[in-house]
C-alpha cells in the first residue's frame, strides 16, 4: 500500500510540475497578468463552472486588475475589467481584431445538422445564420417594430384579463414569464403560434436547463437527455407550423427568414430548429428582467406610489359608463411620461445584468500599447463588473437606487456602452431591446394600474440568483417569490375599467 501511495504521489507531482511548466512557458511576460493558480489550467475552469460570473467578480475584488489572463485547457481568456480598455476593444478601428462570437451561438444549441450549418455558413458567411440579420432589419426600429409591439400589447391585455384571478396566490416570476411568452411569441409567430399549445410552452421550459450542457458538457446527449427530448417536441411543433403554412400569418420577419433559408436549400425540419434561437432571444432575458423590475417596484412603497402616479399621465381618454368609468391608456408614451418606471427599468438591468461579451482575437495584437494579446484567445467583458464600478457609478454602485436614472444627468450614462451594457454593444447590440423594453414596461404598467401584488410571506425577500445560467444576459432567481394578486380597491381603481392601446393606428409612434 505505501508504495502505491508513493507512486501516486510522485505521479501527481510530475503531472503538476509538467502543467506548471507548460503554463508558464507558454505565457508571455507581456501578456496580461496571470492570476495565481493552485492547479494550472483547472482551477479557472472549475471556478467558472461552479461560481459563473461571480468567479470573475471575486477575482476583480481580490486582485483589482484592469485586465488579466485566465488559462483553461486549450483556451486562454483575457478578462477585461477597466472601462478604458473596453473602450479600446470597442473602438471601430478594432472591429476586425476583436470579432464577436455570438453569431454562432444559435448554431450551438439548436441541433442543426452539419449539412445545414454548412449551408448557412455558405449563405451568410461571417454574418451568422440569417436570424440575427432579420431581427436587426425588422425589430430594431420603424413601423414593423410598432406593429409587433401593438400586437404584443393586445395579447397582454387579454392575457391579464383572463389569467390574473383576484386573490389568487401565484409565483411572481412564473406569472410574468407566461404572460410575456404569450405576448412576445404571439406577436411574432401570429395566429398559429406554436406556443399557444401549453404542451409546447412546457417542453420549452424543460429544454432550457439543457442549454448549458449543450454549450459546456462533452456528452450533452447523456447529461441532458430529457432536455433534448423536450427540444425535439418544440422543433416538431415548429416543423408542423411551417409545413401547414402557419408562418404565412406571422410577423414579416418569420416568413422572410423561412423563405430565404428555403431558397438556400434548408428543409422545413431544419428551419424549425433555427426557431430555437428566435425562441431563446424572446423567452429568456425579458421575463427575468420583468420579474426583477416588478420585485423592486412592489417592494419599495415610494417607488410604487411614484410609478402609479406617473402612469396616470398616459390616460388619453376618459368616459363615464353606467357602472363607473372607462380610462384609455396609451402605453406608447411610457418611456417619455413615466420617469420613475423607466429609471427603475434601467436600474434593474444595471444592477442585475450578468451579461458577458465574448470576442475572439483574430491576430496577435497589443492592446493600449501595453498588453500583448495572442491570436485565437477569447476576450471577455463581464457587464456586472462594469455596472458596479465605483469610478463610473459612485460609492452607491452596489446599491439599487430607484432614482439613479431619474434625472437627465443620471441618464447620460445610459448612452455610453462602455459604462452601461445590459444589451451589449457595437454591431451586435441586442436588436430586440426596444421591443422587449416596450412590452415588459407595458406588462408592468397594466399590472400596477389594475392589481396589488403582495408577498405571501408578508415581507418581500429578495431571492438568491447563484444558480443562474452563465449564458443568460439576466440572472433567473433561484426560487420564485409567492405573491397574492388582488384587484385594487382604492378610489382611483374601483369602478374603473382600464383599456390599453399602443399609439394610434397610423403607426406613427414607436
Ligand atoms: C430584456 C430583454 C433582453 C436582454 C437583456 C437582451 C440582451 C441581449 C444581449 C446582451 C445580447 C448580446 C449583444 C452583444 O453581445 O453585443 C443580445 C443579442 C441579441 N438579442 Fe437580445 N435581449 C433581450 C431581448 C431580446 C428579444 C425580445 C429579442 C428578439 C425578439 C432579442 C434578440 C436578440 C438578437 C437577435 C441578438 C443577436 C444580435 C446579433 O448578434 O447581431 N433580444 N441580447
Ligand atoms: C479609436 O481609435 C482611433 C485610431 O486608433 C483613435 O484615433 C480614436 O481616438 C479612438 N477613439 C476612442 C473613443 O478611443
Ligand atoms: C463612458 O464611460 C466610461 C466609463 O465610465 C468613461 O471612461 C468614458 O469617458 C465615457 N465616455 C463618454 C463618451 O462619456
Ligand atoms: C455617470 O454617472 C455618474 C454618477 O451619476 C456621474 O458622476 C458620471 O459623470 C456619469 N458619466 C457619464 C459618462 O455620464
TrEMBL record:
PROSITE patterns: CYTOCHROME_P450. GO terms for molecular function: heme binding; iron ion binding; monooxygenase activity; oxidoreductase activity, acting on paired donors, with incorporation or reduction of molecular oxygen. Its cofactor is heme. InterPro entries: CYP450_monoxygenase_sec-met, Cyt_P450, Cyt_P450_CS, Cyt_P450_E_grp-IV, Cyt_P450_sf. Keywords: Heme, Iron, Metal-binding, Monooxygenase, Oxidoreductase. Pfam families: p450. Gene3D superfamilies: Cytochrome P450 (1.10.630.10). The keyword Metal-binding applies. Heme binds at residue 430. The keyword Cell cycle does not apply. Transmembrane segments: none annotated. Belongs to the cytochrome P450 family. This is 25-hydroxycholesterol 7-alpha-hydroxylase 1. It comes from Paraphaeosphaeria minitans. The lineage of its organism: Eukaryota, Fungi, Dikarya, Ascomycota, Pezizomycotina.
Amino acid at each position: 500500500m505505501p508504495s502505491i501511495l508513493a507512486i501516486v504521489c510522485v505521479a501527481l507531482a510530475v503531472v503538476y510540475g509538467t502543467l506548471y511548466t507548460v503554463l508558464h512557458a507558454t505565457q508571455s511576460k507581456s501578456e496580461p497578468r496571470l492570476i495565481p493558480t493552485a492547479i494550472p489550467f483547472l482551477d479557472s475552469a472549475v471556478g467558472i463552472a461552479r461560481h459563473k460570473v461571480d468567479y470573475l467578480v471575486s477575482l476583480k475584488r481580490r486582485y483589482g486588475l484592469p485586465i488579466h489572463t485566465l488559462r483553461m485547457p486549450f483556451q486562454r481568456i483575457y478578462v477585461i475589467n477597466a472601462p478604458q480598455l473596453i473602450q479600446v476593444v470597442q473602438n471601430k478601428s478594432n472591429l476586425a481584431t476583436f470579432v464577436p462570437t455570438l453569431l454562432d451561438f444559435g448554431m450551438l444549441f439548436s441541433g442543426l445538422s452539419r449539412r445545414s450549418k454548412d449551408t448557412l455558413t455558405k449563405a451568410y458567411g461571417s454574418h451568422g445564420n440569417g436570424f440575427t440579420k432579420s431581427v436587426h432589419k425588422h425589430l430594431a426600429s420603424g413601423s414593423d417594430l410598432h406593429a409587433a409591439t401593438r400586437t404584443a400589447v393586445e395579447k397582454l391585455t387579454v392575457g391579464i384579463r383572463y389569467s390574473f384571478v383576484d386573490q389568487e396566490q401565484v409565483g411572481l416570476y412564473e406569472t410574468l414569464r407566461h404572460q410575456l411568452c404569450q405576448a412576445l411569441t404571439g406577436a411574432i409567430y401570429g395566429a398559429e403560434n406554436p406556443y399557444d399549445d401549453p404542451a409546447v410552452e412546457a417542453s420549452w421550459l424543460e429544454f432550457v436547463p439543457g442549454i448549458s450542457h449543450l454549450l459546456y458538457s462533452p456528452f450533452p446527449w447523456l447529461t441532458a437527455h430529457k432536455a433534448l427530448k423536450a427540444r425535439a417536441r418544440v422543433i416538431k411543433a415548429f416543423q408542423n407550423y411551417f409545413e401547414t403554412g402557419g408562418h404565412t400569418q406571422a410577423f414579416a420577419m418569420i416568413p422572410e427568414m423561412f423563405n430565404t433559408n428555403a431558397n438556400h436549400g434548408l428543409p422545413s425540419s431544419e428551419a424549425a430548429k433555427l426557431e430555437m434561437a428566435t425562441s431563446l432571444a424572446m423567452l429568456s432575458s425579458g421575463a427575468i428582467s420583468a420579474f426583477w423590475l416588478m420585485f423592486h417596484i412592489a417592494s419599495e412603497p415610494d417607488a410604487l406610489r411614484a410609478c402609479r402616479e406617473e402612469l396616470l399621465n398616459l390616460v388619453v381618454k376618459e368616459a363615464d359608463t353606467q357602472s363607473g368609468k372607462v380610462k384609455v391608456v396609451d402605453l406608447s408614451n411610457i418611456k417619455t411620461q413615466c420617469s420613475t418606471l423607466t429609471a427603475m427599468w434601467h436600474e434593474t438591468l444595471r444592477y442585475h445584468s450578468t451579461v458577458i461579451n465574448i470576442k475572439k482575437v483574430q491576430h496577435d495584437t497589443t492592446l493600449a500599447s501595453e498588453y500583448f494579446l495572442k491570436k485565437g484567445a477569447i476576450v471577455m467583458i463581464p457587464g456586472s463588473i462594469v455596472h458596479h464600478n465605483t469610478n463610473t457609478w459612485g460609492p452607491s454602485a452596489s446599491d439599487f437606487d430607484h432614482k439613479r436614472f431619474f434625472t437627465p444627468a443620471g441618464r447620460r450614462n445610459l448612452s455610453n456602452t462602455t459604462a452601461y451594457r445590459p444589451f451589449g454593444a457595437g454591431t451586435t447590440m441586442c436588436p430586440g431591446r426596444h421591443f422587449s423594453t416596450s412590452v415588459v414596461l407595458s406588462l408592468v404598467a397594466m399590472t400596477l394600474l389594475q392589481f396589488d401584488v403582495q408577498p405571501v410571506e408578508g415581507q418581500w425577500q429578495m431571492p438568491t440568483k447563484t444558480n443562474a445560467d452563465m449564458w443568460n444576459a439576466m440572472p433567473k432567481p433561484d426560487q420564485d417569490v409567492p405573491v397574492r394578486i388582488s384587484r385594487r380597491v382604492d378610489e382611483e381603481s374601483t369602478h374603473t375599467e382600464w383599456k390599453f392601446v399602443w399609439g394610434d393606428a397610423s403607426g406613427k409612434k414607436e
